[in-house]
Amino acid sequence: MEALLQNALNIEWQQIVMWIIGGTLIYLAIEKDMEPALLLPMGFGAILVNLPMSGAVTQVYEGVKEIGIIDQLFDKGIANELFPLLLFIGIGAMIDFEPLLSNPKLMLFGAAAQFGIFFTLSMAALLGFDIKDAASIAIIGAADGPTSIFVANYFKSNYLGPIIVAAYSYMALVPIVQPPVIRLITTKKERLIRMDYKTVKVAKLTKILFPIVVTVIAGIVSPRSVALIGLLMFGNLIRECGVLNSLSESAQKVLANLITLLLGITVAARMTADAFLNWKTLMILGLGLVAFVFDTVGGVMFGKLMNLFSKHKVNPMIGAAGISAFPMSARVVHKMGLAEDNQNFLLMHAVGANVSGQIASVIAGGLILTFFG
Amino acid sequence: MNYELFLKTLPFMAKGMAGIFIVTLVIMLCIVVLNKLTKPKGDSGKK
């Protein structure tokens, strides 16, 4: 009996706090439907690795080191960037770039909405993070989980756990974070601007050539991003080629689900109490919010700027959809447009800006790696 | 507060945003060219 209870004496209060955090993530995943595919495994993983002497993580028993399964998965799947890259194949296979290809001007919104990344980089530096950690934190503004994991891991950031929690939490919170920011920086008149949608048929050849062209351009400009953008575009090529439908379906569903599952629980390797419970975690959560807010500001302000020079006015709310969080931010903008005027359908424009955000966020990640790698 | 590092990062904000816009413009140009080259004859688009 004594032997059974002995380990209970090893429980520390910090571990109990981590169980509560893990439980909260599970609650948010199940009850609030917040990124459940990721937050649920992360929440469970947080509990798993914070049990006293947990065999799921590496421990030394009687002088012998035993490698835990979560650490094994981390070394084999995240430390070498395998999981986020494989996930990108699935994401690429899910994305339909047609709204963007039929109106390439929307790509500019994707570029503008990366402003939060660089703004947060400066803020994190100001708050005392070293440049590589600041860059890792800034990439939360990519609003793209795999890119955040890739960059933070590339820089060997000590804050991988909080960065991932922040990135996925704010992605799920886009419908709450973006609307007040958009309302604050736009006038009612601007929100009422209607935009015609011109249906332009995009040739199949264009859809096939697009992922190849983007890979070549991104690879030449930012070679460090070529793995990220390359696998994203490879997934898209599988989707668009028309002869690999079953592979495309597997990438979208089986591959993406499996990798997400493993990714979620593996990230928990960096959610041990000693690594997670400190003031810097709170600062990172705050900086993540700053990144999302200034992404939104960047996109919307660019829309306003375009209106100064363009004959055809754009609804500046479209700019907010330029963040990579797909399809949440496109839906947010569409709903806000309808709330102002029930005949203002912004969805297709917002989706175009949103998918361009997917590309721009990866380019931003590549630039961050080029600058500080 | 690390003002020195903060000031060092400001040029990267400018370089980063400029870099993203340049790459984006190149990709946009490629899309326009691709659309022109692959446009079916007589297709002028519908509203």
- As residue ranges, the low-confidence spans of chain B are none
Strand content of chain B: under 5%
Helix content of chain A: 55-70%
The biggest sheet of chain A amounts to: 2 strands, antiparallel
Shape of chain A: globular
* Termini gap of chain B: 55 Å
The quaternary organization reads as heterodimer
- Specify the helix fraction band of chain B: over 70%
Radius of gyration of CA atoms of chain A, rounded to a whole number: 21 Å
Task: Spell out the helices and strands of chain B N to C.
Answer: H
**Structural class per helix/strand content of chain A?**
mainly alpha
Describe this structure in words.
Chain A is an all-alpha fold and 373 residues long. Chain A has one domain. Helices cover 70% and strands 2% of the residues of chain A. Chain A has helices spanning 2-6, 13-31, 36-49, 69-78, 82-94, 98-101, 107-112, 115-126, 131-138, 145-154, 160-172, 174-185, 188-191, 204-221, 226-241, 245-267, 273-276, 279-309, 328-340, 347-372, and strands at residues 59-61, 64-66. In chain A, strands 1-2 form a two-stranded antiparallel ribbon. In chain A, helix 8 (115-126) runs antiparallel to helix 18 (279-309), helix 11 (160-172) crosses helix 18 and helix 15 (226-241) packs antiparallel against helix 16. Chain B is an all-alpha fold and 47 residues long. Chain B is 77% helix and 0% strand. Chain B has one helix at residues 3-38. The longest helix of chain B has 36 residues, at 3-38. The radius of gyration of chain B is 20 Å and the shape is rod-shaped. Chain B starts with a helix and ends in a 9-residue tail after the last helix.
Summarize the structure.
The complex is a heterodimer of chains A (373) and B (47). Chain A has 20 helices and 2 strands.
Question: Keyphrases for this structure?
Answer:
heterodimer, A: 373 residues, mainly alpha, two-stranded antiparallel sheet, 20 helices, 2 strands, 70% helix, B: 47 residues, rod-shaped
